[in-house]
Structures are given as structure tokens and as C-alpha cells.
Amino acid sequence: MLASGNGGNFEALTLAARGAGHETTLLICDKPNAPVLQRAARLGVPSLLVSYAGRSRAEAEADIAAALEERGADLVALAGYMRLLGPAFVRRYAGRLVNVHPSLLPAWPGMDAIRRAYDAGERTLGVSVHFVDEGMDTGALIAQHSVPRLESLAATEEAVHRAEHELYVRAVLGLLGGAPVSGR
Question: Which residues are catalytic, by number?
């Protein structure tokens, strides 16, 4: 799994995978102080810090791919990994590289999707799980779930993040053969 931040989706996926007889084989993180690293340690998941500093994206992604291959990763899930992956990496893992995004794609791709949708007055927000392609949140959709706009941005963000954890878990387990892949 690749992550850059807090690690809520990482933890939800890791615990659900264990419950279904699968294992998160490795966390790869690009931020040395990211809280996800502490979550991985607490959950007993090996982690690897891969820095992009002072080298090309292709070099960093070659290290990531080597680590994933060494661990025998069947599926690569992005859990708040805040980088666009290069074409060679995406092609290498085509059909096995997934992401969750806090909007009903194709609406609101990229950063701050919940806030942008909320500020625009959207009545329905949501979550999308998709295969990763070479674009920004443009890959083929796997599942989506709608979330109604709530009384505040904070409440809406909380509801969207809860939906992310639930939908992403169902979709990933489905891809691994452990549950149906669907929205609700």
C-alpha cells in the first residue's frame, strides 16, 4: 500500500484484509513524519520510506516497484498517496493499482475535492474507487457511493471519510476475491 498522510484508509484496509484472510505486505510512504508510519508500526506492517528528494520520479518508483515485487504484492492500493505516479509504474501495475477519491468522479478530481464541492454548493457529494491510470483521478471506476451534503463542511468531510473507509474496503476485498465489489 502507498500512503503519504494520516493513514485512516490504510488502517481500515489492513484490518479488513486481515479479517478476510489477506495481509498488507508493505506500507510505502514518501513523507518521513507521516502518521501512517506509526499506524503501520502499531499494526505490525513493515514499512519503507521512499524519498523523491534529489532524484527522478522514475528512480523513486523503481525502488517502490522493487519493494512491491520483493513482497509479492498482488494488488497495490493508494491510501492518500499524494503523488501522481509515472506512466511506466502505472503500466506495470495496470489492473492491480487502485485508488479511492473523495468525490463522485469525474467531478472534482485532485486535491481538496470535498471542500471544493461543498463550497460550490453541491447537494450530493461522494466517494469513488477507481483503477489508477496516467491521469489525475481519471481511471476506470470500480465503485461509487453518494453522500448527502450535511449542515457543515466538517460534518460532510467526516461522512465522506467514513464512506471512503467502507467503500474502499469492499472494493479492495472484492478485487482480492473476498467480497462483492459494489457501491451502496
Answer: 101
Q: What is the pLDDT of residues 133-156, one digit of tens each?
A: 999 999 999 999 999 999 999 999
Question: Measuring CA to CA, which residue among 137, 86, 13, 52 is closest to residue 27?
Answer: 13
2-175 CATH choice from 3.40.1650.10, 3.40.50.170, 3.30.1840.10, 3.30.2130.10: 3.40.50.170
Distances in Å between the alpha carbon of 71 and those of 68, 76, 128? 5, 11, 27
Amino acid at residue number 66: A
Please tell me the distance from the alpha carbon of residue 139 to that of residue 72, in angstroms, as a whole number. 24
**What one-character DSSP code corresponds to residue 84?**
P
pTM: 0.92
Distance of alpha carbon 64 from alpha carbon 108, whole angstroms? 28
Q: Where are the domains of the chain?
A: 2-175
* C-alpha distances in Å from residue 82, one per residue of 119, 136, 173: 22, 11, 23
Q: Sheet of 124-131: strands edge to edge?
A: 47-49, 27-29, 2-3, 76-78, 97-101, 124-131, 141-148
Average pLDDT of the residues in 112-134: 97
